[in-house]
Structure formats: C-alpha cells, structure tokens
Amino acid sequence: MKKPRSVPAVAATIAATTIFFLSDMVLPTAVAGIVEHTFVVSQVNMTHLCKETLVTVVNGQLPGPTIYVTEGDSVVVHVINNSPYNMTIHWHGVKQRLNCWADGVPMITQLPILPSHNLTYKFDVSRQEGTLWWHAHVPGLRATVHGAFIIYPRHGPSMYPFPKPHREIPIIIGEWWDANLTEVARMVKDDTGDANFRASTINAKLGDLYNCSGIKEDGYVLDVEPGRTYLLRVINAALYSEYYLKIAGHKFTVVAIGANYVKPYTTDVIPIAPGETVDALVVADASPGRYYVVALPSQPPKPDFQSPVLPTRGTVQYSGNHSDVMPMAPEMPDEHDDAITFYFHSNLTSLHHPKRPLVPAQVDERMFVTLGLGTICRQGQSCKRLGKGNERDLILVATMNNMSFELPDAIMTPLLEAHYYNTSIMDMLQELPDGPPRMYNFTDPALIPPGPKEAQLEATSKSLLARRFRYGTKVEVVFQSTALKQGESNPMHLHGHDMFVLAQGFGNYEAERDVAKYNLVDPPMVNTVLVPRLGWVAVRFVADNPGVWFMHCHFEFHLLMGMAAVFVVENGPTVDTSLPPPPMDFPTLVHGSYFQTFL
C-alpha cells in the first residue's frame, strides 16, 4: 500500500479551517457601509534610470490608493481629472450587478472624463471576496493609473476559508516606461511604431538590477517575522508581459484567483498574466536572513519577436540585523517555458463556498473564437495584400475570428446609452460569428513568420464587433490561440461576469476529444482567463447581468490593435433583471450636451 504524500502545514491547516467555515453557523448581521474616496488624476515628475519622466498618477502616488471594502459595502469614488488626457476608471473584476453604468470604459459604458472635468462612480460590492484592482481604461495609461481593490468577507477576516494571516500585502507587478504612454499607444494602434518598457517593477520599485550612474535603484522590501504567515495579494498591472514570481527559499499556497477562492495549491512559482490577481499565503519558515523576490517577464520563443529580458527583484527581510547578509536568489524558470504557466492554471480548482454559483451543465450557445493577428489596408487606401514591398500599405491588427474591433469615429454616444435608449447606433454592430471563416491548423508554427501560407489565412476586417445574448443565456466559449503572425498567449477579460474555466490544452481544440476533459464539478472561476500560447481554453458563463460589457485581451498591444468585442446582455423579464436608467448625475448625450474626443 502506498504511503500518503505529506501535505504542507499551511495546506493541511486550510483544509481543517474549510470544514469549520462550511459548517452551520449563526452570525450577527453585518451593517453595510459606504466607502468614499477622491481620486485626483494629475501628472508628476518621477526620475528613474537617470531620466526624469512626466507620469500620470492618482493622488500623486504610484501605485495609486488601495481601496479596502467589506462585502456588501457601497463605494463612492470622486474622480477629478487634472491630467491633459481623457480618463475613465475601470473596477477590474467588480461585477457591477445591474450597474453597467459604473464599469468605466470610454464610449462603451460612458463618455470619458475630459481634462478639468470630474465624475463620481457609485457601485455596490456584493457576493464577492478577495483581490481585485482598479485601473485607467484609456490607451496606455493603465501602466501608471492603477491600484488594488480589496474585498473582505462581510464578517471580517476571521471568516477566510484559511487561517487568518499575520499581515496582508498587495504586490503589484508593473512596468516602468520613460515614454509618453499615450503616444506609444497611438503608434501601436496605428502601426506606425513601437516601444518597450525600460524595467519591471514590484510596487513601483525597479530594484537593484537597475542603476543610475552606478547608484542602484531602490527595491521593494517585505519585512517578516519568523514563523508568521503572510497573505500576498498579487496583481499583474503590466501592459505587455506575463510574469513568473518566486521567493527564494519559500513556497506559496494559492488560496484565490480573481477574487474567487480555490482549493489550496502549493507551488514555488506564481505565473500571472496582465489582468490576473492571485491570493497566496507565504509562511516565513526559512532561516532568518534576506531572500530575493523576483518577477521575471516571460515571452514566446523565436521566431516571435524577442524583447529585452527585464526582470525586477525586491527582498523578503526577516526581523533582526541582517542588513549585511547577501540575499539568497531563487532559480528562475526559462523565460520561454510556457509549460509552467499551463501547469499552474490547469491545476487550480474552486473551493466550495456559499457564494459560488453552480456550473452550467448545459449550454444555450457555443462559440469557437480564434485569436491572432492580421492585416488590413490603411484607412482610405487601396492596396495589394500579397507580395513583397506591400507591407507599408498594410496595418497590423489583432483579431477574434479574423475580425478586429473598431469604434467608428462618427459615434458620439456610448454604446450602453445607445442600447438603453434603443437608438440607431446599435444597428452598426457587426455580429461576432460562432467561428472563424475557415478551419486550418491554427497552431502551425510555420504561420508565425510572414509568408504566402499565413497571408492566405489572415485576411481581416474591422468593425464594431459585438454579440447579443438573451438574459440568462448559458454560453460556452472556446478560445483558440493561433500562430498567425505571432505565438503569444492571450489573457481574455470579460467585464461584468465571471467565467468557469472547464479545460485547457496545447494545440488545436477538438470537441470530440476535449469535451471529455471538462471539469463540471469544481472548475475555477475567473474574470480574466489565460489562453495558452498555441493552445486553447474552454469557459462557460451565464449572461445574467444586463448591459454592454467589454470582452478583450488584457495585453495592451492586443487591445489597441482590436482584439476585443462587446457582449450585449438584454434585460430579463422583471425589474430585478433589467438595467436601471443611468444615475441622475451621470453625463449622457441624451440628457445634455457633452463633447468628447476619443484617445
């Protein structure tokens, strides 16, 4: 008889705690509160790598303020835009039940907040617990306009389905750019140039791998006490990269992803893509000293374009006098090793929880959505798509089923407002089809470099791409990454809903083979699902939140290039299943004049 494998102490304790958590308990009724903040968006000068850069931030700080709420609270955030750019704030992962008006996407759910203007966001936080975040939803500025959004259980941290940690720490992985981010975004969107970030960051600190004239940059320091347990609330706020996060000499016990609890999963590395959040417990059980915590950006191998490798590192520092001790460094994965992120994501399963909805056993609609790149002729021009020398006549775009999202310049009304008042603008929507225009070997690496083979497959069009769903529709989407002009993974974010992640795999999805792999018992729930590089993922969700919701890749370059669509969820049969009118103080074109310019 095989001897049972030993279980790490933290995981074992969590299991015991979970049994207690799920037992019948009578708890006092918690009183919902109002959490109010003022966000002043402005520009400040910051100096890194010997260069001063004008940076757009909230309240003069990077990262921006952390918002702490208790489940059931109402949130009020006054945004004062003192920057020179249009602005919106998106509450990433907050479901905004019956409140799509507060989702914060320019020209999708609202008019942008113009310079020298302000707007107040009001929304409730219900039936959600864990780590989410907020960020600008205008081109490029998410890199510096962002912060954590922490939701505690209604009856306090003692109700966590794991031992209450000694401390909780937001860990925001990001990028340092010394460029004008709106200009970078414009170049990417128009395919007239590109740029790359200069360094990776942990909580806006570049770390000692970088220096200015020999003086090392400051790194993030996490002070710990021996034997204590710490809850790291990890957020990837980067524009361009998935990251591998490791702490030398320590392990993580993952307990939640995307503000949804998972069964405890022990690992020495956390792969995290843009838009994802991971809650992980770390026990300070190593020999007292100093240990590097490293965030390494990953990227696909050649023939994909190779970016400079720009990791960052901070320090976990035990209490006591260890300042003269050289920190221990972790052994990092290879930057091209996508098996690590695949293994991590495919091993997560949901923890049974009273607030967790049931997995749809049957579906009403199925979609097979391919993700890749393509080309179109530059606006207002005719061109030859094939043949050498024609590249300058083409613009590179990102696609879903060979269609690229574009908001027409003529649209002056946000789509949500047009939908609510049933205006003719909604007639401009082009349906996202059930599948691509043709089937082929989607993951053939020979399609990555330009050539006649890929040119025959990547014909693309731009449109106001959308999909309509009746209220309550149970939807299955299989996202298939392709090799068309690139081999990237794709973190796909759905606003207003969580998705059940049923299965994933490398290569081409085959229903006859892969449906049998579906986990319909305890699949993880996420708002951002990572589609593997040259692979697929199957998700299900219930379209039960009426409104106009953005679905897009959270790589900024893919979003700018058009890998997006809007999901329009119709009203249900009752008042409680229908979108209310916009708030009285919400700027709309129907109830008042409001001039805007996009980007």
Automatic annotation (TrEMBL):
It holds the Pfam family Cu-oxidase_3. Keywords: Apoplast, Copper, Lignin degradation, Metal-binding, Oxidoreductase, Repeat, Secreted. One of its GO terms (biological process) is lignin catabolic process. Its EC number is 1.10.3.2. GO terms for cellular component: apoplast. It is found in: Secreted, Extracellular space, Apoplast. Lignin degradation and detoxification of lignin-derived products. Belongs to the multicopper oxidase family. This is Laccase.
